[in-house]
């Protein structure tokens, strides 16, 4: 009788200890998950976010810079970008291209088969910078007329690659085009080709 009672008490204590150990293990697991989630949230709040804020279009007309595109000039596309995050963007490279496309433009015509050269820089939190691309050939009169009618458009497109302070790599893709019929250098973001990771 005493032995049976001792066994019952011991068995109950063992079960209680196992229940307590299981609860402690579950509590530790939940605490670990919460800690990982908090670290992930902190990274997202603190990391660099480099975004293109706008673009301008101008031209080089025989050594004279104009704020609009004219026949037989070299179109120049300039992008403005900013680190809207709270920490620096490291090893940043802005790869910018400029080109004329018939409208509507084929999506695969923007493929970056070969990235144009870019300098490597760091961009502090809240800081802005710019980069540009010059067209490889002068724009003919017919293309200027097509820009006015909207059958062609000048695109400034590419991507910005950088690392955050946590060592993660990010890419911001951008694609802008001239506003049809406008020759004041104004550009607008397209519906596609603008993504950020």
Please outline the helices and strands:
Layout: H1 2-46, E1 50-61, E2 64-66, E3 74-83, E4 89-102, E5 121-123, E6 128-134, H2 141-149, E7 152-163, E8 169-178, E9 187-189, E10 195-196
Antiparallel strand pairs: 1-2, 1-3, 3-6, 4-5, 4-7, 7-8, 8-9, 8-10
Approximate shape = elongated
Helical residue percent band: 25-40%
Low-confidence stretches: none
How many E strands?
Answer: 10
Question: What is the residue-averaged pLDDT?
Answer: 86
Q: Count of helical segments? A: 2
Class from helix and strand fractions = alpha+beta
Indicate the radius of gyration in whole angstroms: 29 Å
How would a crystallographer describe the biggest sheet?
A: 6 strands, antiparallel
SSE string, helices as H and strands as E: HEEEEEEHEEEE
Q: Bin the strand percentage.
A: 35-45%
Please give the alpha-carbon distance between the first and last residues. 71 Å
